[in-house]
Amino acid sequence: MMILLLLSTAWATPVYRAYPDYGVEVVGLGLAAAGYMIDFRYRVVDPVKAAPMFDRRVKPWCEVAKSGARLMVPAPAKTGPLRQVGRKVKPGSQLFIMFANPGRHVQRGDKVTIVVGDYRFADLVVQ
Known about the structure:
Elements: H1 2-11, E1 17-19, E2 24-32, E3 37-44, H2 47-50, E4 61-64, E5 70-72, E6 94-100, E7 111-116, E8 119-125
């Protein structure tokens, strides 16, 4: 029984910050691809409230607090935008948005604000 408890907590992703008005919980914000990308991870709690996050017409960006720079989601020709969008997202689904970080402008410990349409995830610290 104790082993099952340890395994279940080991695989659970901790909540970095909850946004009940947006229907999501931020579960991570970190550097990826040798620091040239920023990986924003979130879990859907309420698909109805979170629906604007999945609109393909909405162009998310990452605003860097120290410089005011806006980092966009890259859209390579073969793969398209590096973000997940979907129509049938279920509660508990964990999704991502990748932002370009040219020149490794953003470093660990920097504060950023993620903007997706009208939703603002302010003062997040890059891990």
